[in-house]
Amino acid sequence: MLELDAVHTYYGASHILQGVSLTVAEGEVLGVLGRNGMGKTTLVHTVAGLLRPRRGRIRFLGRDITGASAERISRAGMGLVPQGHRVFPSLSVKENLKVAVRRARSGGRARGTVADGVPRFPVLGERWGLPAGVLSGGQQQMLALGRALVGNARLVLLDEPTEGLDPQTVARVGDVVDELRRRGTSAVLVEQKVDFALRRVDRVVVIGRGSVVHESADPAGLRADTATLRDLLAVGGTVAA
Amino acid sequence: MTTPTSTKPDTRPAAAAAPGRSAPRRWAPGAGVLVAVALLMFVPAATDSFYTFVATRMLLLGLLATAFNAVFGFGGMSSLGHAAFFGIGGYAVGIGVTRWDWSPGTVLAAALAAGALAGAVFGLACLRVRGIYLLLLTLALAQALFGLAFYQTEWTGGDNGIPNIPRDGLPAAVREGDGYYRLTLVVVVLCVALLWMYQRSPLGMSVVGTRESESRMSAAGYRPGALRTVAFAVSGAFSAVAGVLEVYLQGSVSTASMSWQISADVLVYAILGGARHFFGPFLGAVAVTGLEVWVSTYTDRWMTVLGVVYVVTALFLADGVLGRAASLLRLARTKSGAGSGTSAEART
User: Fold this and answer.
1) A168 in contact with B at a CB cutoff of 8 Å?
2) Residue-wise pLDDT tens for chain B (348 aa)?
3) With a CB-CB cutoff of 8 Å, which residues 210-239 of chain A face chain B?
4) Alpha carbons B158 and B150: distance in angstroms, whole number
5) Chain A residue nearest residue B212, CA to CA
6) Cβ contact, residue pair B347, A94, below 8 Å
7) How many structural domains comprise chain A?
8) Considering the domain boundaries, does residue A241 fall inside one?
9) Does A129 reach chain B within 8 Å, measured CB to CB?
10) Sign of the torsion angle spanned by Cα atoms B190, B194, B200, B205
């Protein structure tokens, strides 16, 4: 479904992604782990079309999307939940969901509806007419995830969706990842919470200094392998949830 | 955890199902506007011809400010070029009526089309610039059109403009003073209503989204550049209608209609009234025009007084008069336990 072949991305003169190659299969949830500053968000932005790679190839659903605009990639069926509870603060909850539905093409799937974002997050229904900017951080993240659900994309990029959230909201985010999997939606889950990610993904890659330094098709095994985790991610002892 | 496939959850949003606002209250703003418009119809009966003239200008400048705000407040794009659209509407009357004897309907259609076209050109030309550079580029484009009007004397009359533009095409009942005021009121109400609907439409909503984050809108499948261009085109079209009303009122058009000072004035109207609120710029236009007339009857230094008002507004009313009023209202509602407002209140 998604293939990256030796992708290089720069911020000005800074060489951030240094030949990342990875694949995501149909219906697969791929975990992307790595320490801060290793290029995880750059990877997400490059795949989503918000950054243009300087070298390498990206293919999505069999089509070359290298250097394509973000809107084209979105319409091809890729959804993005950006880092940091990014919503449209002066649009209402309902309007935020509408914006996500309106242009969604979902790569051939039926479009979702605004109401699709509500059952998973009842709190959104309660805040239906409020500007998203007045919601709490956790509620904004629920809205951002709701936007991903109503878009009904073929592949969703989740950039640190649990960042700064309380445990209860983190559990909700986990529910959404599980639901995406049940729907057969592919996902790329970029996470700092190692245990959270390893419990939910089918496969995992670790990014270090702009390239894939470890790949595992056995997340449960990696979860138990504290020595390797310590080497790769500086996570010691029992991995935190 | 309920999944959408295992059960059929009630997807009806709680706020929509139990909105917390009774139906009569939801209709109250609309009814209030209707009553206000009905009362405004009687302004000429309550004042003399001078104040009717002033009220007519308040209305058309209010329309210009509201149209401007489709780009500025809702689109998040600073423009110092809206005099160009206002002038285009004015010259559509001047040239169309004096050269080709156009009817008011033809003039209006031509002004709408020319204003929209000019707006789209401005929008396309400004795709790659933001902030202060956008301000400068719109100013430069408007000055280019000003120069065109200045030097094309055969068509525009140059600096002297086109005087004595007849209102013969207008129905007799709305040709002069009171009647023209009522015609202006109807046109302005109609245009403002259309702008309101545009702002509430998915398209208007998307333009607001672009103001908030172009990259997020791109990632949602939108073309921010196209949305910005549409916002300029809509704004240009309705600004041109304000120009049409102005020239029918004044009976002449000159390069003064395209002066950068008009662009600056309309920016002040929006900031003073509250650019994040739909009716803020209209209120700003009415307040500034009224202040100009009122203060100038007492002192020749009315510009100084207005300057002080602008400074006070900038210092103490960052979101304009309407913004301040809305925040006070929200505060009062919160204290009385009525809950927060809707996004509509936050944006309009």
Assistant:
1) no
2) 333 333 333 444 444 444 444 555 667 777 888 898 899 999 999 999 999 999 999 999 999 999 999 999 999 999 999 999 999 999 999 999 999 999 999 999 999 999 999 999 999 999 989 989 999 999 999 999 999 999 999 999 998 999 999 998 899 888 888 999 999 999 999 999 999 999 999 999 999 999 999 998 998 889 999 999 999 999 999 999 999 999 999 999 999 999 999 999 999 999 999 999 999 999 999 999 999 999 998 988 888 988 898 888 888 887 888 888 888 888 887 777 654 444 444 344
3) none
4) 4
5) A88
6) no
7) 1
8) no
9) yes
10) negative
Residue pLDDT, tens place only, A18-54: 999 999 999 999 999 998 888 999 999 999 999 999 9
Domain of A227: which CATH number? 3.40.50.300
Residues 112-151 of B with CB under 8 A from A: none
Number of A to B CB contacts under 8 A, please give it.
121
Q: Per-domain residue ranges for chain B? A: 44-161+169-259
| DSSP run (H or E) holding A22 | strand A14-24
Residue A42 lies in a domain: yes
Out of A74, A94, A116, the one facing B219 most closely (by C-beta) is A74
Instruction: Decide if A240 is inside a domain.
Output: no
Say yes or no: ipTM exceeds 0.85.
no
| Distance set, CA B220 to CA A1, A72, B17, B213 (Å) | 19, 9, 28, 11
**HSE value, Cβ hemisphere, 13 Å, CA-based, for B334:** 9
d(CA B258, CA B150): 10
Q: Which residues of B touch A127 (CB under 8 A)?
A: 15
Residue A221 identity (one-letter amino acid):
G
Q: How many Cβ atoms sit within 10 Å of the Cβ of residue A203?
A: 17
Give dist(CA B283, CA B291) in Å, integer.
12
The C-alpha of B47 sits at a distance from chain A's nearest C-alpha, in angstroms, of: 41
A184 touches chain B (CB under 8 A): no
Residues of B in contact with A172 (CB under 8 A): none
- Burial tier of A48 (Cβ tally within 10 Å: 0-12, 13-18, 19+): buried
- The chain B residue lying nearest A115, using CA atoms, is B11
Beta carbons of B221 and A71 less than 8 Å apart? yes
**Closest chain A residue by Cα to residue B201:** A95
| Residue whose tokens read 């202006």 | B184
Residues composing chain B: 348
**Which structural domain, as residue segments, surrounds residue A141?**
2-233
As a whole number of angstroms, the distance between CA A21 and CA A7 comes to 7
